[in-house]
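Study this one:
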Amino acid sequence: TGRLTADYLICEDDFLVVQRDIAYVTEDDSITADSRVLSQSYKVNGVEKAKTQNRYIDNYKRLNAKLTTIGSYTYDKSFTYSNSRITRVMDVKNGFNYHNVSYGYDSMGRIVSEVDSKNTNINNTYAYDSYGQLIRENNKSLDKTYEYVYNNIGNIESVKTYPYTAQGTEL
């Protein structure tokens, strides 16, 4: 099936951009018996513009890797899991590793860190109170630290924003 649209994605000068044109876009899916999408192909006015292939690793239907081709560009995203949690996401563009993000968890399964070994701007940490509520986010990529205050029934009452400070640093 297809649809008439005024917007569709193309790759131009190493960037994904939205093309503003009237076009007939079709999507062809290859789907397994258990409803996992193996591949998708996108055509604009009958010409293939992008193709995505998904690879799965286990019976939990977790995505292991996704390879997308747009024109001459390839984008490969892989996922690593441990104890049912995602622990690493790696992005490779045309063979070059440009993101390698690791996630850390506490004993309760809450995310406590997000670190990109390829991009020093992504080094975020998270802290929780005894109720499991997020009380602090140190977001280096945004250069901000957020503190969350909750009322007696667990709803966020306020969010305070400060310049970025490292985990454990008093504000």
In short: The radius of gyration is 21 Å. The longest strand covers residues 15-31. The chain is about 0% helix and 70% strand.
